[in-house]
């Protein structure tokens, strides 16, 4: 089983893959609204951090970055799976080549 830098399993990636497969057109159309909400939330988060003592602020930011790294790792796995699936290799040999490439790419991501 592939692990991210923090040691978490790819279970999060599997959950994200399921969510990706179940996206509706309405979900995709909400992209701009979601980007705006996230930007506002991040700005608000940064402002609220200013009131914390230095150690608490740094610890919270460190935890936040670790969580974002693990989330990004899961999305990188999904991206590689989508890229690999697009190749539609019809033969067993080609499928083995694609699987080898996917494993190599995921190992590269895991060092992130």
Task: Summarize the entry for a quick read.
The protein has 112 residues and is mostly helical. It has helices at 11-21, 25-29, 31-49, 54-86, 92-110.
Notes on the protein architecture:
By secondary structure, the protein is mostly helical. The chain has 5 helices and no strands. α1 crosses α4 (54-86). 4% of the residues are buried. The model has no long low-confidence stretch (mean pLDDT 78).
How would you sum up the global shape? flat
| Distance N to C terminus | 16 Å
Number of strands: 0
Helix-and-strand structural type: mainly alpha
**Any low-confidence stretches, pLDDT <50, length ≥5?**
none
Question: Helical stretch count?
Answer: 5
Helical percentage:
over 70%
| Strand content range | under 5%
Order of H and E elements = HHHHH
Mean pLDDT, nearest integer? 78
- Based on CA atoms alone, the radius of gyration comes out at 18 Å
Question: Major sheet, described briefly?
Answer: none
Q: What count of domains describes the coordinates?
A: 1
SSE topology sketch:
Layout: H1 11-21, H2 25-29, H3 31-49, H4 54-86, H5 92-110
Helix pairs in contact: 1-4, 4-5
Structural key phrases:
single chain, 112 residues, mainly alpha
